[in-house]
Amino acid sequence: MVLLVGYPIVSNFILSIQDVTVTTLNALGKPLVGLRNFQTLLADGVLQRSIGNTFVFTVCCIVFQFAIGFALALFFNRGFPLAKPVRGLLMIPWMIPMTVTALMFKFMFSSNVGIINQFFQACGIIKSPVEWLLEPRSAMFSLIVANIWIGIPFNMILLSTGLTTIPNDVKEAAAMDGASKRQSFLFITVPMLKPVIESVLILGFIYTFKVFDLVFVMTNGGPVNSTHLLSTYSYKLSFVLFKYSQGAATANILFLILLAVSIFYLKFVYDDRRAE
Amino acid sequence: MTNRAVRLRSAVLGAVSILIFVVVMFPLYWMVVTSLKKEIEIFKIPPTLLPHVLNTDSYFAQLQHGDFNMFRSFKNSFVISTSAMLMALVLAIPASYGIARFTFKGKRAFILGFLVTQMLPVSVLLTPMFIIFKNVHLLNTQFSAILADVTIGIPFSVLIQIGYFASIPKELEDASRIDGCTRFSAFLRIFLPIASPGVIVCAVFSFLYGWGDLAYGMTFIQDQAMRPITAGIFNFMGQYGTKWSYLSAFAVVTIIPVIFIFVFMQKYIISGLTSGAVKG
Predict the structure, then answer these.
(1) Which one of A130, A167, A178, B80 counts the least CB within 10 Å of its CB?
(2) Beta carbons of A113 and B244 less than 8 Å apart
(3) Does the CB of A224 have a partner CB in chain B at under 8 Å?
(4) Does residue A259 sit at the B interface (CB-CB below 8 Å)?
(5) Measured between alpha carbons, how far is B166 from A247 in angstroms, rounded to an integer?
(6) Spatial CA neighbour of B266 closest among A88, A74, A253, A152
(7) pLDDT band at A127 (very low <50, low <70, confident <90, very high)
């Protein structure tokens, strides 16, 4: 474990301050270049764009996943005959390999055979087919939609489980005291769910921030590097352009951001839970 | 509420839930239908919701030309994810038993280590692992992908199992020791059976991680004949980019095991998801 995970973290860091390309991969004395890899990347500009993309992608996904997942959790907690089986079935999107999901959405968003264009055209919303995946902004939009689809079950199941732990008598007491449904939601459900909500949001952030397969298969960072996330950009640098050190440098930025979030999570959320 | 009002409420809520189900599941349905259409029908406007002519060629054509044999990739994926699953279980069960039952120096650090590992992005591990595997000549073997997948399975499994083992009262072990069990046989006969739901959760998740992996399998294994099915799909997309009937058939085959696991293991998946995130 230490060998397979600890070593890569350290060596990735070392790699990021060296200059390793395909020709120097096997050489013994690898040139140490300090922060020059970062400088090269910054001068190129794709790195900044990838960082921006990663944040936009993550925030958009989380907001919608959480909202839709929460709405569904509330809906399925109302207790009716079909609630349990249907809620169970809705988990399938989360379990499917991301490669398949990416393929599916690539097909649906494709400009000539995609069902999405055909649907919008039939409704008269758009006149001619939209090139969803060939234009930077709509490509990003398509990626976000696909990832929201994957993330909804995760949010829904966790929030649902959280909801069942809220005792009914608290709500009944509030209703007796004259609380409206909205008040009871805002002042009882949400505060009592707070620990679950925190976990869902932070874990959601961590999972979404490191998404790789989806973007790699759907757009592969294109058109013209406009939809790269840190994960796909790092992959491209290392395994397409064989600039291992620059790839490692990019991966390190991703790692540091995630590490900060993880520490925050462990310190404030996980430990609280332990203490209870 | 009167009886009728209750029934009406169930009917309305049921109908809404079915509507939600249809909307959410549409992409999957669309993929399955597409895999059964002829290539010409896929291009039809307006699109057909059911195939006019049932066409299973997309599945059987794969059996003939060996270049992108999806059944072979299926087998590769199966070998990789099953081995990764077994390896994760064999290593994680004793580890979590140890962490849960004994107190030792640095125990907290151990747990933290596993938690952080679980959050690591693939991209950070990919390049260094690539270089390690290259140096030890594991590149282009399925073992490299198995090892890499295990690094996702182990932390998850350990964290889940600690919870299960810790919840078993110590008295039970003491009682079994008095009755003449050794520590090891107590572990085998008492702990393992009680913690078996946890073992199943770990098995299911480790398998799913392995099955869904694209990055490791694609990067470490160059030889198409040994690559997992996810890498197969990706390759196929590059080669026959718009042959959607074949591509969707490929995708349908990929999700068959997932559906099986879902049908038989649903309970364990929910428990894994919630305990992994909330309880830790």
Answers:
(1) A178
(2) yes
(3) no
(4) yes
(5) 41
(6) A88
(7) confident
Tokens matching residue B80: 């990789």
Q: pLDDT value at position B132?
A: 82
> Which of A5, A230, A235 is nearest residue B120 as measured by Cβ atoms?
A5
Tokens found for residue B88 = 């994760």
Q: Given phi > 0 = left and psi -120 to 50 = alpha, else beta, which region is A266?
A: alpha
> For residue B134, which amino acid is it?
K
**pLDDT mean over A100-125:** 86
Which residues in chain B have their CB less than 8 angstroms from residue A99's CB?
212, 214, 230, 233-234, 254
- What sign for the dihedral angle of Cα B69, A213, A157, A181? negative
Query: For residue A8, what pLDDT band results from cuts at 50, 70 and 90?
Result: low
| A104:B31 CB<8 A | yes
Test mutation, A96, A159, A262, chain B, max B CBs within 10 A: A96
**Angstroms from B146 CA to nearest CA on chain A:** 12
Residue A272 binned pLDDT confidence (cut-offs 50, 70, 90): low
Residue of A nearest to B33 (CA): A104
User: pTM (2 decimals)?
Assistant: 0.87
Contact A100, B236 (CB under 8 A): no
Cα-Cα end-to-end distance for chain A:
30
State mean pLDDT over B259-266: 88
Cis peptide before B46 (omega within 30 of 0): yes
CA distance A149 to A65: 8
Q: A252 is written with which tokens? A: 């390190």
Residue reference for tokens 């999901």? A101
Question: How is residue A68 written in tokens?
Answer: 């839709």
What's the gap in Å between the CA of A129 and the closest CA on chain B?
12
CA distance B210 to B208: 5
Domain parsing of chain B, residue ranges: 72-279
Query: Cβ–Cβ of A7/B277 closer than 8 Å?
Result: no
Half-sphere exposure of A167 (CA within 13 A, CB side): 4
Cα–Cα nearest to B218, from A82, A151, B226, A138: B226
The H or E element that residue B225 is part of is: none
Q: How many other CB atoms are there within 10 angstroms of residue A219's CB atom?
A: 24
Contact B259 A89 (CB under 8 A): no
Q: What is the SS3 assignment for A220?
A: coil
Identify the residue whose tokens are 């900044």. Answer: A48
Q: Which of A3, A75, A99 best tests the B interface by mutation, with the highest count of B CBs <10 A? A: A99
**Interchain contact, B30 vs A104, CB within 8 Å:** yes
Q: Which residue of B has its CA nearest to A229?
A: B123
**Paired tokens of A73:** 């959790």
Q: For residue B132, which residues of chain A lie inside 8 Å, CB to CB?
A: 7-8, 11
Residue A212 makes CB contacts below 8 A (sequence gap 6+) with: A229, A231, A232, A235, B121, B122, B123, B214, B215
C-alpha–C-alpha distance, residues A73 and B266, integer Å:
17
Kindly state which CATH superfamily the domain B72-279 is placed in. MetI-like (1.10.3720.10)
Domains of chain A, earliest start first: 47-240 (1.10.3720.10)
